[in-house]
Amino acid sequence: MEAKKQNTYLSLYCLIFMTSKVTMSSSTIIFMFILFIMTTVVCSSSSNITIKETTLEDRYKKWLGRYGNLRPSNMRNMDLKSRFEIYKHNVQFIDKFNSENHSFTLIDNQFADMTNREFKATYLNHEITENPTQYCENVSVDISQAVKPPPVSLDWRKKGAVTSVKDQKKCGSCWAFATAATVESLTFQKTYQLLNLSVQQLVSCDGSNDGCKGGYGDKAFEYIKKNGLATSDDYPYTAKNSTCKSNFSKAATIDGCKSVESHSEEQLLYAVAKRPVYVEINSAFIKQYRFYHRGMYSCSKCVVHKLNHAVVVVGYGHNGSSDYWIIKNSWGENWGDDGYMMMSRNVCDGQGTCGITEYPSYPI
């Protein structure tokens, strides 16, 4: 369409020139030529902007087709024009980031039409204001006396000790998912049965925590020690605070929990070599974390204080010149690498990427 307009303008200027060349001065001819060039450039620029905008609109329509129903229910009926503007802003950030030289890539996943504030309020834990391992026994491995070092790499998923990735949805229950996941792995190690345990029981029944508004792993471990944990079939997840049920069967229990020595990736390595470990991290660089797709999530993209999200370390390894942790998240399989993240290891002066070594703990 724009090309036709430009051809029309060219024909018009040629006609004017041919019919007026006898009386037209050279200065007039030059002026009209410049005017034609300017018109062509403006039309071309307008065309590029229109095409770019249309492409983004088409991209958003495809995104809605895939992720529209995965958004929090309170956002599904909101003004799509406003949502598109948020999506456009996020996509521009994602595309720019991916065009640069980074160790990981981003993608417009199910969170792409949410603002940072909306995302933080919906999916992240409250910032840690107390020691989340106070109910756990402190342990420290005497590495110099260790019988043998941990294996170079380990993935508890390959050993059958990790259940499928779950989705916490519109509920700040990452603490409950991470707690349940570590108890699932412990139960497997004890019984060789891999059970999906109830996150909702922790959200609804653990009065020492705040349900969908956040919580602490050590308090959740203490609750499970006293009350046990049902299966997710017996007590299904609803992603909201509710009255605690009383008619459920205890499928798993623990004797307590232990906390790993802080600020030591070597101590965390020895712990993960024995079982998956609950950790608190900081996802303050929210866009890089929430849009993470694949690759090595690096230290420079995260700080080590103001921890606000709980995940599980389910393994570790080495990739080329870099060491990494394998992180299991609770934002569904559409996030990251099928729900997992490869996070850089042995960096940040022992504190680890995103403060991963600040408060590690595990059930016993």
Can you characterise this structure?
The chain is of the alpha+beta class and 364 residues long. It folds into 2 domains: 2-49; 106-363, Cathepsin B, Chain A. It has helices spanning 2-20, 26-67, 80-99, 116-123, 174-191, 199-205, 217-227, 265-272, 286-290, and strands at residues 104-106, 137-139, 154-155, 257-260, 277-281, 292-297, 309-319, 322-328, 340-345, 361-363. Strands 1, 3, 5, 6, 7, 8 and 9 form a 7-stranded mixed beta sheet that branches. A 3-stranded mixed beta sheet has the order 2-4-10. A hairpin with a 2-residue loop joins strand 7 (309-319) and strand 8 (322-328). Helix 5 packs across helix 6. The longest helix is centred in the first third of the chain and has 42 residues, at 26-67. It is globular and about 60 Å long. Keywords: Disulfide bond, Membrane, Transmembrane, Transmembrane helix. Residues 60-119 form the Cathepsin propeptide inhibitor domain. It comes from Zostera marina.
